[in-house]
């Protein structure tokens, strides 16, 4: 006997297991597609996250008073403060050097006190040997920016900010837009400062500092001299108490 139309329609519907399988496959596909989308978005945001998070710590409210530096070609363009004051401290750094960031984190505030209190002659020599085989050399760009900030009387503030935002090597942290943004956060916004960074005004001076490393027997960074003698720390860490004691002993 022929089946009633209603019975035929019911028989033509997908069986229970087929329907469930199709739903599961659809859900799995949706999860996979969503995962790909979120992965792409995460990777895109990760490129911005390190600098974007770090730059929030840079604030003009933490600026000290304007402080002019002495930059002498005869001294291989060291950025010097309180010339003629004893003790004499020389700090060799590469902005890209992670150990230089460690040094700044532990010792930086104390050096700032020595400079602003006129308690020592402190000379910063920003070299650029890390990444010399890369174009652009971000160490050189950051060092140039520090010279630009020195023109504005803001070297110490900018120098601290450089290490605050330091990212992984070759991450693009020290390209011009970011270096300008650091200045903006510190209220360094003059046309002269912007032109200085965009035109890499102090490229020759930065190169001179690099080329002078053998003259001072500097083979790596950070290297610190106190009255002409290399400061030797007791271990891998930079300890403020040790450094302070060495400076006090040199007075």
Structural class: alpha+beta
- Terminal-residue CA separation: 115 Å
Alpha carbon gyration radius: 29 Å
Topology as H/E string?
HHEEEHEHHHHHEEH
Number of helices: 9
Helical proportion, percent range:
40-55%
Strand content: 5-15%
Total beta-strand segments: 6
Strand order of the largest sheet: 1-2-4-3-5-6
Low-pLDDT segments, ≥5 res: 1-16, 36-46
Tell the overall outline.
globular
Mean of residue pLDDT values: 87
Detailed description of the structure:
This protein has 251 residues and is an alpha+beta fold. Helices cover 51% and strands 9% of the residues. The chain contains nine helices and six strands, in the order H-H-E-E-E-H-E-H-H-H-H-H-E-E-H. It has a six-stranded mixed sheet with strand order 1-2-4-3-5-6, sandwiched between helices. A hairpin with a 7-residue loop joins strand 1 (70-71) and strand 2 (79-81). Helix 4 runs antiparallel to helix 5 (155-164). The radius of gyration is 29 Å and the shape is globular. 35% of the residues are buried.
Topology:
Layout: H1 5-12, H2 16-55, E1 70-71, E2 79-81, E3 88-93, H3 98-116, E4 121-126, H4 138-151, H5 155-164, H6 176-185, H7 191-198, H8 203-211, E5 223-226, E6 229-230, H9 240-250
In short:
By secondary structure, this protein is an alpha+beta fold. It has helices at 5-12, 16-55, 98-116, 138-151, 155-164, 176-185, 191-198, 203-211, 240-250; strands at residues 70-71, 79-81, 88-93, 121-126, 223-226, 229-230.
Keywords:
alpha+beta, disordered N terminus, 251 residues
């Amino acid at each position: 006997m022929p089946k009633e139309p209603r019975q035929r329609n019911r028989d033509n519907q997908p069986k229970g297991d087929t329907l469930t399988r199709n739903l599961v496959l659809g859900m799995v596909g949706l999860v996979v597609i969503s995962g790909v989308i979120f992965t792409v978005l995460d990777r895109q945001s990760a490129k911005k996250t390190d600098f974007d998070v770090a730059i929030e710590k840079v604030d003009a409210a933490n600026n000290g008073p304007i402080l002019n530096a002495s930059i002498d070609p005869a001294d291989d363009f060291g950025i010097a403060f309180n010339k003629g004051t004893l003790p004499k401290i020389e700090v060799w750094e590469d902005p890209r050097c992670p150990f230089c960031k460690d040094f700044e984190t532990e010792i930086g505030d104390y050096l700032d006190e020595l400079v602003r209190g006129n308690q020592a002659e402190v000379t910063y020599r920003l070299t650029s040997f890390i990444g010399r085989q890369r174009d652009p050399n971000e160490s050189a760009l950051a060092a140039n920016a520090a010279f630009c900030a020195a023109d504005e009387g803001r070297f110490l503030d900018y120098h601290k900010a450089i290490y605050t935002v330091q990212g992984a090597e070759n991450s693009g942290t020290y390209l011009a837009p970011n270096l300008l943004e650091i200045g903006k956060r510190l209220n360094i916004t003059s046309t002269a400062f912007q032109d200085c960074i965009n035109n890499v005004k102090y490229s020759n001076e930065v190169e001179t500092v690099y080329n002078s490393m053998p003259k001072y027997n500097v083979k790596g960074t950070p290297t610190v001299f106190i009255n002409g003698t290399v400061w030797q720390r007791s271990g891998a860490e930079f300890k403020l108490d040790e450094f302070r004691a060495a400076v006090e002993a040199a007075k």
